[in-house]
Amino acid sequence: MEKIILIKYGELSTKKGNRNLFINLLDRNVKKILKGYEIVIKKDRVRMYIMIDNKYIDEVAYKLKKVFGIQSIVLCYKVNTNSEDIQNKVLDILKNENIDQFKTFKIITKRAFKEFPIPSMEFNNIIGGLVLRNTSLKVDVHNPDLKVNIEIRSDGTFIYLNEIEGNGGYPVGVQGKGLLMLSGGIDSPVAGYLALKRGIDLECLYFESPPHTSIMAKNKVIKLANIINEYSGSIKVHVVPFTNLQEEIYKNVDGSYVITIMRRMMYRMAERMLKKLNCKVIINGESVGQVSSQTLDNMIVINEVTNVPVIRPVACMDKLEIIRLAEKINTYETSILPYEDCCTIFLPKHPVINPTLSKCLEYEKRFDYESLISECINNIETISDLNDNDFENVL
Known about the structure:
Strands 1, 2, 3, 4, 5, 6, 7, 8 and 9 form a nine-stranded mixed sheet that branches. Strands 14-13-10-11-12-15 form a six-stranded mixed sheet, sandwiched between helices. It has 14 helices and 15 strands. It has two domains: 4-168, 2-Layer Sandwich (VC0802-like); 177-388, Rossmann fold (3-Layer(aba) Sandwich). The longest helix has 19 residues, at 258-276. By secondary structure, the protein is an alpha/beta fold. A hairpin with a 3-residue loop joins strand 2 (39-43) and strand 3. The radius of gyration is 26 Å and the shape is elongated.
């Protein structure tokens, strides 16, 4: 029996006048993620249908689990909207699917096509009786092992068993682009994932300081970008050569202020790149109080250098929550690889936790950071088409 994939939109269905924009973006993103497969997509205001060779249907369903904007994914069968065809197909499905593992069932009929002559509850009873007569399953309307779903529509009836949960959220790109300050740690990839979930497409900014940081540290970040790119399909990584500027900071700034000044420089560069790349917000993995540079006082002083919005998706999450999410999205094992980035190699023993703006300005007058920032920006390396590269053995 030929299956098709039915997509339920979830949060998109609340958008009323803007719904078509959301659905068209979801359609674009699905095609991007499924590039290389021969598919046919049909969509309306409440559902999307994907036709594909059934030998690929399970792996395609797995890929769709990572597409934001999808509430659930259903592998279903389509029949003509008449009682006899529906009943025959239900029996065929139960004979061909592995139902021996189930003991109880429930029929759920949704009659969107009101011209179908049998009301939903009555049709539940008809199909339920059919299942009872032809299988060993028992009815349980409260907590069934198996749900037989029947969606009756004018263009056909769709029958399916239990659903596959999707990622929810909004289609990536519906909110425009954000610039993610991506490091090799645990937090920033999780922040990127959460931003994607709210419909923000990403470009990434990574600061490297060779020879103080290794090529392995850079490759680690590229691998992290590649993992979160599975949820987007269009991420680029802009690698900033930070060595000269970082060494000047280290030479001219008291050790306790090094990280604070370094972060102020990073924000200045992020703002310049944001405008160059037509992004709307800066995104990072800062979590309140987690490290010295993320106290509220430090955030205020660091944020002072930019007027663009800064989004911190993990700001109020504790470390264990962030780790659990990193494990879920498969970034954790890469994040804990022991390759230091530029934020840790010059970490002082006693970084300031309550900096003052006047002190920061005093230290910044000691060197020509503007020309050093321009040098950094002018020598950025951009890595595109992450999905076209094999990063499996990069580390």
